[in-house]
């Protein structure tokens, strides 16, 4: 009888998931910021619009990572980004870039 009960609860679970699916589709998945990423938004966030700080909206993760590498090794001159980029390892930079490349609604600034 154990098998029968298992099948029943699986059915109930599937029904619950199906009922929840439309609600889930409306709610963007929130992804917590990796260490350091929230600081980027402090400068590159909406307040930077129209300032000398470039927006990072619509940048692909790979693009952000490549720019960070160029800042880090001095290939690209910078006022502040050289120092900031050197503060992160390649792995941390990749995690930050992937997070920043997500749509805004998915970015959850509080870790
Ligand atoms: C203190 C403010 C400040 C912070 C914090 C900051 N940035 Fe920047 N960022 C700048 C400025 C200013 C530039 C323009 C280059 C320069 O002068 O350093 C820039 C340029 C960039 C660019 C190049 C964008 C383009 O379109 O050319 C990238 C990519 C970038 N920042 C990523 C980041 C990431 C990732 C972080 C967080 C780890 C970060 N920045 C944190 C101020 C900041």
Automatic annotation (TrEMBL):
Span of domain Cytochrome c: 15-104
| Keywords on record | Electron transport, Heme, Iron, Metal-binding, Signal, Transport
Q: Which Gene3D superfamilies match?
A: Cytochrome c-like domain
* Iron as UniProt keyword: yes
User: Any keyword Electron transport?
Assistant: yes
Could you tell me which SUPFAM superfamilies the record lists for this protein?
Cytochrome c (SSF46626)
- Give the source's domain of life in one word: Bacteria
Which GO molecular function annotations are given, in alphabetical order?
Answer: electron transfer activity; heme binding; metal ion binding
Q: Which residues form the signal peptide?
A: 1-25
For this entry, the protein name equals: Cytochrome C
Organism name = Kumtagia ephedrae
């Amino acid at each position: 009888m154990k098998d029968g009960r298992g099948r029943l609860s699986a059915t109930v679970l599937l029904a619950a998931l199906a009922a929840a699916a439309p609600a889930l589709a409306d709610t963007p998945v929130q992804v917590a910021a990796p260490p350091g990423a929230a600081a980027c938004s402090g400068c590159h966030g909406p307040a930077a619009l129209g300032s000398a700080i470039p927006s990072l909206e619509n940048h692909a993760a790979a693009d952000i990572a490549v720019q960070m590498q160029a800042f880090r090794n001095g290939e690209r001159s910078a006022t502040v980004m050289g120092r900031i980029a050197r503060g992160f390892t390649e792995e941390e930079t990749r995690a930050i870039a992937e997070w920043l490349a997500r749509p805004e609604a998915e970015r959850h600034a509080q870790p």
